[in-house]
Amino acid sequence: MSGPQPRPGVLDISPYVPGDSKAQGHKEPIKLASNESSLGPSPRAIAAYRGMAERLHRYPDGASADLRAAIAKHHGLDPERIVCGNGSDELIALLTKTFAGAGDEVLFTEHAFAMYPIATLAAGAKPVVAKEKDLRTDVDALLAKVSERTRIVFLANPNNPTGSYITKDEVERLHRGLPERVLFVIDAAYAEYVTRNDYTSGMELVAKASNVVMTRTFSKIYGLAGLRLGWMYGPASVVDAINRVRGPFNVTLPAQAAGVAALADVAHVDQARTLNDHWLPWFSAEVRKLGLEAPPSVGNFVLVRFPKANGKDANAANDFLLKRGIILRKVAGYGLPDCLRVTIGLEAEMRATVEALGDFVKS
Ligand SMILES: Cc1ncc(COP(=O)(O)O)c(C=O)c1O
Prior knowledge:
Blueprint: E1 30-31, H1 43-51, H2 65-75, E2 82-85, H3 87-99, E3 105-109, H4 115-122, E4 126-130, E5 132-133, E6 136-137, H5 139-144, E7 150-156, H6 168-177, E8 183-187, H7 203-208, E9 212-217, E10 230-233, H8 236-245, H9 253-264, H10 266-289, E11 301-305, H11 314-323, E12 326-327, E13 329-330, E14 339-343, H12 347-362
Parallel strand pairs: 1-12, 3-4, 3-7, 7-8, 8-9
Antiparallel strand pairs: 2-10, 5-6, 9-10, 11-14, 13-14
Helix pairs in contact: 1-9, 2-9, 3-4, 3-8, 10-12
Bound molecules: pyridoxal-5'-phosphate (PLP).
């Protein structure tokens, strides 16, 4: 073979398959495929974004200082230990390539978020997968897979696409079981939606441990997925390493401004959470009334499990709903071929989806 060849591992990557955004014949489809907030961004974030239009000839602040200060103030954190990123995806990739390489192992669970295997293979490291129990992280199964070569453990809590979470006690037990040289990355992309009092985003663990990083995003409850904005909180040594590796202007000018404004609009976030608190249980219950399974979720999405029967399976359901202009997410790539993932949207979107699923079941 001639010509430049990518590093080993790169061609083993199955490219990330984003949720569909089009339904043929429907100009304004109901898009419930990417866990975006149907409420949209805060009006304050939109104004801040627009306010930057005349300044686009200027580079952004490479340190995202105002945004880090706003995040730190909002969550009671040390701004020096925050790094902002072009989506938390960028931070996941940076953490992986900074702390793992050829010969190293990166550990996560069976149905974990798809960026972990991608980032691992892109870094030339080896993905190692631990079994889940009932679509939930099994701490013992993860710990049993730790080897001398393990460099990173990723935990999405809650996990996408399963919607399950592990408790603060379980997170701490997992951490206690890891050697100190292993970087423990807690991906809390959906933390703002979780209303259980035994849940932790991992923030206080970062504060007291030398090997824990928490990642967060503005793509979900803040409704800014299109801007690409995420952040991480970690030990000073990890922050220092990531700041050496990241692009010098990795977060755009309008993203920094919109992020600051979005944080200040607490009422908007509360509204998004309240909507989810109502429509997630409602939707899950309606789906179960139709005889379909909907495993418990604490995020802004829920899996729906379909029978394997021909014409009644997840693929058939997906096609049926697409024809109605409703876009759900196939999750076969996550090892869940009999499920579809449904993002919790606004009332009309949820009612239309239940009605379409009902028609599908009866068809
Ligand atoms: C668990 C999890 N982590 C990270 C992300 C990536 O978010 P971002 O838009 O910040 O890159 C997602 C998005 O789907 C996610 O589900």
